[in-house]
Design a protein that fits this description.
Shape: elongated
Structural class: mainly alpha
Distance between the termini: 36 Å
Order of helices and strands: HHHH
Oligomer: single chain
Length: 95
Protein backbone atom coordinates (compact mmCIF):
# COMPACT_ATOMS: atom_id res chain seq x y z
CA UNK A 1 0.00 0.00 0.00
CA UNK A 2 1.48 3.30 -1.16
CA UNK A 3 0.73 6.42 0.90
CA UNK A 4 0.30 8.58 -2.19
CA UNK A 5 -2.22 6.18 -3.69
CA UNK A 6 -4.07 6.02 -0.37
CA UNK A 7 -4.31 9.82 -0.23
CA UNK A 8 -5.54 10.00 -3.83
CA UNK A 9 -8.19 7.39 -3.07
CA UNK A 10 -9.27 9.16 0.13
CA UNK A 11 -9.65 12.51 -1.66
CA UNK A 12 -11.57 10.85 -4.48
CA UNK A 13 -13.75 9.10 -1.89
CA UNK A 14 -14.52 12.41 -0.20
CA UNK A 15 -15.53 13.87 -3.56
CA UNK A 16 -17.64 10.78 -4.32
CA UNK A 17 -19.30 10.94 -0.90
CA UNK A 18 -20.25 14.58 -1.36
CA UNK A 19 -21.50 13.90 -4.89
CA UNK A 20 -23.73 11.15 -3.53
CA UNK A 21 -25.04 13.49 -0.84
CA UNK A 22 -25.78 16.18 -3.43
CA UNK A 23 -27.65 13.78 -5.71
CA UNK A 24 -29.57 11.86 -3.04
CA UNK A 25 -30.72 14.50 -0.53
CA UNK A 26 -32.79 11.99 1.47
CA UNK A 27 -29.68 10.01 2.49
CA UNK A 28 -27.27 12.94 2.81
CA UNK A 29 -25.48 13.27 6.15
CA UNK A 30 -24.40 16.85 5.55
CA UNK A 31 -21.12 18.01 4.04
CA UNK A 32 -18.93 16.90 6.95
CA UNK A 33 -20.58 13.48 7.33
CA UNK A 34 -20.45 12.82 3.59
CA UNK A 35 -16.80 13.86 3.46
CA UNK A 36 -15.74 11.66 6.38
CA UNK A 37 -17.72 8.62 5.20
CA UNK A 38 -16.52 9.09 1.63
CA UNK A 39 -12.87 9.53 2.60
CA UNK A 40 -12.90 6.45 4.81
CA UNK A 41 -14.73 4.42 2.19
CA UNK A 42 -12.50 5.70 -0.59
CA UNK A 43 -9.26 5.01 1.24
CA UNK A 44 -10.14 1.66 2.75
CA UNK A 45 -12.64 0.41 0.20
CA UNK A 46 -10.36 1.10 -2.74
CA UNK A 47 -7.67 -1.03 -1.15
CA UNK A 48 -10.16 -3.93 -1.33
CA UNK A 49 -11.91 -2.98 -4.59
CA UNK A 50 -8.70 -2.31 -6.55
CA UNK A 51 -7.23 -5.81 -6.41
CA UNK A 52 -10.64 -7.41 -6.97
CA UNK A 53 -11.12 -5.47 -10.21
CA UNK A 54 -7.51 -5.89 -11.30
CA UNK A 55 -6.56 -2.26 -10.67
CA UNK A 56 -3.17 -1.47 -9.21
CA UNK A 57 -0.62 -4.26 -9.03
CA UNK A 58 2.13 -3.75 -11.59
CA UNK A 59 1.08 -0.19 -12.42
CA UNK A 60 1.28 0.86 -8.78
CA UNK A 61 4.58 -0.91 -8.33
CA UNK A 62 6.16 0.89 -11.28
CA UNK A 63 5.56 4.34 -9.78
CA UNK A 64 3.06 7.14 -9.93
CA UNK A 65 1.85 7.65 -13.49
CA UNK A 66 -1.34 8.96 -15.07
CA UNK A 67 -2.89 5.50 -15.25
CA UNK A 68 -2.32 4.91 -11.54
CA UNK A 69 -3.84 8.28 -10.64
CA UNK A 70 -6.91 7.66 -12.80
CA UNK A 71 -7.39 4.19 -11.31
CA UNK A 72 -7.01 5.63 -7.80
CA UNK A 73 -9.65 8.27 -8.47
CA UNK A 74 -11.99 5.72 -10.04
CA UNK A 75 -11.74 3.11 -7.29
CA UNK A 76 -11.66 5.70 -4.49
CA UNK A 77 -14.57 7.70 -5.88
CA UNK A 78 -16.77 4.65 -6.38
CA UNK A 79 -15.92 3.23 -2.96
CA UNK A 80 -16.49 6.58 -1.25
CA UNK A 81 -19.80 7.14 -2.98
CA UNK A 82 -21.05 3.66 -2.11
CA UNK A 83 -19.92 3.95 1.51
CA UNK A 84 -21.59 7.34 1.97
CA UNK A 85 -24.78 6.05 0.34
CA UNK A 86 -24.95 2.93 2.52
CA UNK A 87 -24.20 4.79 5.76
CA UNK A 88 -26.65 7.56 4.84
CA UNK A 89 -29.34 5.02 3.99
CA UNK A 90 -28.84 3.15 7.28
CA UNK A 91 -28.85 6.43 9.21
CA UNK A 92 -32.10 7.55 7.57
CA UNK A 93 -33.79 4.20 8.31
CA UNK A 94 -32.72 3.96 11.94
CA UNK A 95 -33.06 7.62 12.92
Amino acid sequence: MDLTSLLIQAVAGAIGGNATGAVAKNISMGPLGNTIAGALGGGLGAQILGPLLGMGGAAAASGLDVNTIIQGFASGGISGALTAAVIGFLKSKFA
